[in-house]
Each structure stands twice: as C-alpha cells, then as structure tokens.
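In response to a reviewer's request, we include the raw inputs and outputs for one of the modeled complexes. The two entities were modeled together in a single run.
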Amino acid sequence: MSMYILSSDEISQLVTELQASYAVYGPQVEPQTRQVFFDLINDATALDLEAPIPSMPVKEILFPQMERILKYKYDAETQSVEMARQYFEQPKVLFGLRPCDLAGIQALDRFFLGQEFVDDVYLTHRRQCLLISNTCLHPFPQCFCVCTHSGPDADEGFDLDLTKLADGYLVKVGSEKGRALADAHNWTPAKPQQLSEQKAVVDKCIDLFPDMATDNKAWVSRVMNRITTGFIKSETWEYIGDQCLECGACSFVCPTCSCFNIEDAQTECGECERLRTRDSCSFEGYARMAGDHNPRQPVEDRRNKRFFCKLSYSQSKKYLRPGCVGCGRCQWVCPGDIGLPNVVQYIRREITGGEA
Amino acid sequence: MQLMNYKTCVCNLCGTGCGQFLKTDGRQVFGVAPLIAHPVSKGKLCIRGWHANELLNTNERITQPMIRENGQLRPASYEEAIALVASRMQQFDGAKGEIGILASARSSNEDGYTLGRLAHEVFGTRLQGIGAEAGHRKSMASLEHAFGYPGAHGSLTSIDHADYILVVGTDITRQNPIIGGNIHAAQRRGARVVTLSSSRTQIAKLSTKHFQQKPGTKGLLVNALAKALLGIRTANRERKANIDQMPGYSDYVASLRSISSVALERASGIRYEEIEEEAKYLEQAKSIVILFSSGISGLDRPTIDAITNLALLTDRMDHEHSAVIPVAGISNLQGSFDMGVSGEPGNSVFKALASPDSAIRALFVIDHDDGIIRDRERIASLDFVVYSCAYKSAFMDLAHVVFPLPAFNETDGTYTASDRRVQITRKNVDNPHKVLPGWALFQKIAAAAGHQWGYANAADVFIELANNTPGYAGLSHQQLSQGFGQHWNPQAFPNSRRRKFNAINIEYWESPTTPEFPFALMIGKAQHYWHQNNLMRKTIVPRREYDQTLWLYPHGYIEISPDDATRLKVKDKWLVNVRSSIGTHMKIAVKISPDVQSGTAYIPYFIKNMISDFLLPYENAYAAGEESVIPIQIQE
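The model returned the following structure tokens for the whole complex.
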C-alpha cells in the first residue's frame, strides 16, 4: 500500500482542487450551536478534520431523509403517461469520513447494491463518489466502535485514508481511484516509522475508550449470540419496549438503517410526484400488512426487530459485518434510554442475573 | 461561517419548544436533525419533530388570497382581498359584539400581538378567543393567584436536576414526548417520579410510583398528599417554614384537616397510609417539579388549585430547580395568552358562536384547523368570514375571503413555550408565493381602514410588543437569536413575590355511574392524534401511524379492561352498543387494554362522529377536559 505524508496546507489545497470537479462534503462546525454536520463545503477553510463525529450520519447524502424520485402525469385523452426521474448523478467527495460512517456506507452498499435487486436511486447517488476516511485520534462521548469492528481507524472501503500525525497527515491509498489521485500529485512518500506512528495513534485512541465500551466488547458478541438464538426473556424486551417513545430517531441517525417508505402525492398542476422518505421499524404502521395483520404490533416486538437487525448473525451475513457500527448516535437521540449500548447492557444484566 | 444545508429552527408542533435543525437548500426542506445544545430537548425529537419536513413539503398549502364569488373561491390579488375585508368589516359594529376573532395558539407572538391590535383598534371588538384556551385560562388563573403572574413557575430544564417530579394526569410521553423523555431520564438518575393517573400510561410505567386513582379524584389525592405533608411538618417543627404567613393558609389547612381517610379511600381507591408514605419523600426533596397538562384536555380548576397549593406548601418553590408547569399541547398557547387575544369571560367568541341570540355577524379566523369545527352551522350562517392559514382546511369552506400565511420556517417569529421560554425562529426558506406574514397582512388591513402602524419587519413588531407585554421588556429579536431564547420575566408583575393559597373545597367525588350505567367513560388520547390533526394529516409517516389506528378500528374504539371484556363476553374489535345516561348512543369496537382500570372506559376524541353525536351533548363534561366522566352502559 502506498503511503504519503501531507501537510495541512496540502490537504486544504486538495480540497480546493477537488471542488473544481466534485461537490465536496466534509465535517464542519455550525458556529452558533457548535454542532458538527457532514455538509457541502463552500469554503475549504470550513472543513474541520478534527471536529467530533458529525451529529447526523453521512448517509444523509447517499440516502436522504426525503427525496423526490419521480414525477409523472397521466393524460386521460391520449391515455399516456409522462414520467421523469428526479434524481441525478453528481460526482462527489466525502472528505474526512469517520471510520464508523465509512462502515455504514459499506453496509448500505451491500443492502442497496449487493443483492439481487440494485436500487437505482442509491446507485445514482453512490456512483462517482470518492471516499476519504479520517482516523479518530480519540473517542467521542458514546462511541463504541471498538466493540463493532469499525474503528477507530478504517481498514477497508476507502479511496484515501487520513491519519493526523505530528508532522502532517499520513495518507493511505486504498483503491484504484485513490491511486490515480495520488499519481496526479507530487506528494511526499511516508517513511516506515510514520506507519508505526500511525499504529501508535490508533492504539492510544483505543486506550482512551471508556471502560464501558472496551468492557462491552466481549459482551457485544455474547449478546449477538443471544439475539441470534432468541434466548432473551420477553420481560427484557418489555423493559426495553416500555422505554420506547416511538419517535424513530434511532433509525434516522443510524448509519446502516436502510428502510424507506414511498408516497405518491399530487401537486398543484395535476402532476404526481413520488417521494421516498426514511422509515423506522419502531413505528406500528411500518409492519402492517394487507388485511390488518400486524406481526409486530406491540412496541416491544418492534424494538426486538431493530436489535435483531443490528446484532444478529443472520443479518450480519448480509452486511458482512454487524449491522451496528458503534457510532453511538442512537444513544444521543433516544428520548427513552434504549440506545444500542444500553440494550447490550440490559441483555448483559439478564445474562449475569443483574451483576455487572 | 453558516452551513450550506442545515439551519436552526424551533419545532412548532407542541408547547415544549424543542430545538431542531432543518436540512434545507433555502427553497425546500429535505430533512430534520436534532439540536444537541438545546437546553430542553438536548438533541432529542419526537415523531412529530422528526417529520416536520413532511409537513413543510405538503402540497396542501394555501398559496394566494381568495374571494368567494357565486359560491366558489376564486384567486384574488392582495389589494382586492384586503380592500374587500376592510370595507366589509366597516359594516359591522365591533362594540356591539358583531365581530368575533378566532386567534390561533400556533401564531407567532408578532402575529398574535398585531391581531390583537387589529381587533381592538380597527375592528373595535373584544369578542375573541384562542383554540384550546378554556383549559389554559384555568391554569393561568390558578398560577396567577398562587405565584402572582399568569405563567409557569420555573423552567422545564429543572426536570434534569430536581429531586422529586410529580406528573398529574397527562399522557405526557404522547402529548409532549420530549418532556416525557426528560422525566424518564430524571428517574434514571435517581429522582423520584410520581404519576397520578387513572390509566396506566407510559409515564406511569416509567415512574418510581404510580397512584392509579379512580377517575375524578386527582385533586382530592393532591390535597391528601398536602395533608400528609402538613402532618410531617407539624411533627417536625424545624421544617415549619414561613408559609403559614401566606394569605389563605389557615383556610387551606382547615380544609386539608377535614379530609377523612375513609372517605378518601372510598372515593379514590387509594389508602391514606400510602399517601403518608409518599409525603415523606416529598418532605425530603429539596427541589420539586410539578407538571400537568393545560389546554384542551387540561385539568379542572379545583385540581389545578390543589396542585399550586401543594407546590406552595412544600416551601421548596424558591429552589432554582423547582417548577410548576402547565404543559401545553400547542406551540404558542402561552404566547397567545400573553399577547392578549384570549377570550376573557364575558367576551368569549366561542360563547357568542354557541348562543343563538348573540349579535355576532362576522368572524376573523386564524388557523383553527382542527379536524372538528364547533358551531359549524352558526359560522356558516354569518354574514362574513375571513380565514387565514398556511394549510388548506375545512374552514375554507366557510370563508368568504381566504388569506395564505407562511409556514413557521418561512418568516421570522417568536414563540413562547410552556415554561415561558421565548424563542425565535428565523426565516430559513424562501417564501415562493410572496405570502405576507400575519403581522404584515394585519398591518395592510389596518392601513386600508385608515390606521397606519409603520412596522418594517417582525423585529419592529417585537420591539413594540415587548414594551406593551408584561414580562417581555428587555427581550428583542437580536437578543433571542443568541443562544436558545429566554424566559419572560415574572418580576414584571407587581405581585410576583406575593404568593397566596387558592381556596379549596374538599369534595369526595361520587362516581355518576349507576347499576344501569356502570362504566365511567373518559375522553382519552390515541397514540398518533395531536391537537392539530389537520397538520398531521399532511405528513406521510405520522399520518400513516394515525391511520394505523383507524384501520384497526375504522369506527373508533372504546378501551376497556380485560376483566370487563371477559364479563361482557366480548373480544378485541367486536362491536358493542354504548349508551349514555342521557340517551345518546353509538356502536363502536372494543379495544382491550391492560392499562385501563375495570369499571372505566376511554374513547379517543379524534373521531368526528363520536364527538358530534355522542359527546357534544355533554357540554360540561367536555369542558372539564381530562376530568370529565360520562356514565355509560356497554352491551354486546
């Protein structure tokens, strides 16, 4: 693997240069609230590679909360339909992805592109997309990627990967696209000791994870085993379900949640537009079937579905990794107290009989 | 540097006032993100807040002024519509009660204030009212008596620090989910959370202690808790505070002393010993938060008085983390009250519409887009009706002139949450149809009638309203833009340091049920119904969730306990005949719920037929909100 060392200025130059032919997205801090978003970059100086994990996952860009995907108009006289798709390809760079968000994109790729059916909307957004990841130097509150094999550094799926070292950014090339970008520049090759420095940075970051996260590492796999085999008491699910306020937030902020809903709405001028909106398994209407049958009507059954999706072996087989990437966002946004790390704790408590 | 696609906003879909980001390119809203730094919502949103983008994308908007001609609404220019309204309104005499104003609890303070000016200065009328105001006025009257000003005591952020939290009634995880979530978080960190509720609501399940009292006895139970607290105080002289100096103390104490534990238990189903145990925790708490719902499903006055009295009796109300908060279901119910557009007794537009011999001939309406229009026939027979709203609704059918309004993110405006927190929402998307904001529309109507106001923007309006509204002095758009708003200042009210006990009567509620009508029917809430049903009907996912309930129970449902279902030999979704003691009747499906007490029944109030045919004859019961009880019989 080729490696280079780039100064902050060179990184900034790279952003400006990429902006000429790509829409460049990256972490930025909203000035009033100090909240971090992975948003379109207007001015290269706004990119903040040291900003904490973005508050919303990067799937915002590839799989928006709501988008118009189709417009159509039926002409009754000629009995013809005019249709026009409403999503368009745009070359883009996702600059400074946290490894958890990169893992999320890989899971979405396998869901939308990796099976029998290829989702054209997602494919259109995903095509011509350059992925540049950024190693986390320290964990942020709620992070637990060490438990889900998705951080603090990325090991696959990126075109370029950055790690901030003492003398600049170590840049790893991870793909042909990344290779082409590197070849077009006269970047300084990295020295071998800089690779060891990168390993030390990652090790130090892992040491900085709170005990709850590192301690939970083994428990996440035990919980996966329990969830896969179904050996979890219904009281535990009820305890979890009682705390669910059915807001859907966990799904909306999850880098791997891919469920959506389709709605056709009439516009003023007699046209119809087809909207695709994100959906969540926490909603009662989500699993309703024709004839009013609902296999998941009680809230605890719906919660159990979500954690099955995130932490069961059968789902992991589809994503080729656990469905949870350890970003901890669900814990931030949950008005109950059932973010995924807590659910692991509750199941762990059940296994140990309340101890630890 | 501002972000390209994320703009801050205050959620407008209930009275909590959560912070949110809208994902927008300045033309359309594509999504929502939570706002982590917001002191109340702290990065959490409910199903409504998370789907605000769906509402803001609806095609069911009113986009231009319209005038009814030959029975049909036709597009009109602002000039034409405003001139018509100004000239028609001059034909009515406001002073004689011919013009009524239906204000909105969702309007910004700027719109509310200028609507008040339009009504009082231009139309010369005081006949006015806000939707859902009846319940809130009781809360305001009780709080003003107790604390010296009409508004919440303390802040919603107190929930995060208080030792003791009492939730009276209110299905708060449904109505104001983020407040519910904060209460749950408080319970997890060790606060004692106590719920008084006749049904086992979600917050009841998440509480440290749930008193599941019989219907109609919440106030009695609160008074009993006060009596028990007083008992501890008398024994522990050191904690006997100066509250006995407050006006009304001796009458209050005398009333409390008269509570009989036998009668209490018979009426409420709760033993006094259990309440005495609870009082020990209350006595030890240094900071106490009491929450109750206010507005359309609020409590009756005696119950609110019991609550405010208990708050004063604890002697903890000066603690920085103590609070008594009337929780509103609508975003600016408190602000609309502050702006002076509520219908004071004697000047209520609702009363005028309901009395056949009132003088009312014209009506000026903002929003009022609930699923149910009360007094519809009377409104249809009026000479002139003007309607303004951002969204299409059934009220348009009754209007002679219709004006569009911007959505809450299409114009600058301030909103006052349940705890008096005044927050600003900045315009963050274009206003494609050049729709005038409410204040600008009212200014033009006033100008057409010869009144010049001279506001250049919403900030100007705010400067004036801050000078004229007690508590708002010192606030401005600029200042509210920094941080997350500010509570209006109670010290602007001269009596704000003079606390008083409300007078109470101890009444042992006798259930109106009889052997013939053995069930106590109450008006409950359904999962996905919120006050402005019309708004949720214009979303996608929340609407589907609401429909989910309707699909399962297309004709509505009556919730009863599993034991009662066994006794009646009925199963879930079976149709039953429900007959009330005054003879109204309906056929409705049964929903069996373990959270309901035997002998009680709940129906949600969102289904039209149920309201109009079955409930409306019970005017008084309906007005009593959460405490109303109707005796019924249920037959297979």
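As requested, we also summarize the result in words. Residues 136 and 584 of chain B are 29 Å apart (CA to CA). DSSP finds 24 helices and 24 strands in chain B.
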